[in-house]
Amino acid sequence: MSDLSSELLPAASLIAGLSGSLHCLGMCGGLVTASCNGGKDVLKYQLGRLLGYFLLATFAFGVGYILKGIVPFTWGPLVSG
Fold first, then answer.
1. What is the pLDDT of residue 51?
2. Selection from 17, 22, 23, 81 nearest residue 53 by Cα
3. CA gap 55, 49 in Å, rounded
C-alpha cells in the first residue's frame, strides 16, 4: 500500500466508527430504551452489548494474531483494512 493510503486508513476508520455510533445512538438506543420496562432492562441490554462487542474484539484479535504468522508483513495494512 502507498504511504498516503496507510495514513488515511486510521482517519477513515475513525469516521466510519463515529458514523456507526451516531446511527446506533439514534436508532437502536432509542428503540431499546422505549421498549424496556425499567432500569434493569436497560442495564441488561447495555451489559449484553458490552459482552457482545468484547467477544467480537477478542475474535478479531485472535484472527489477527493467527494471520500475523501467515500473511507477509507487507500485506498487513491491506488485511487490517
1. 92
2. 17
3. 10
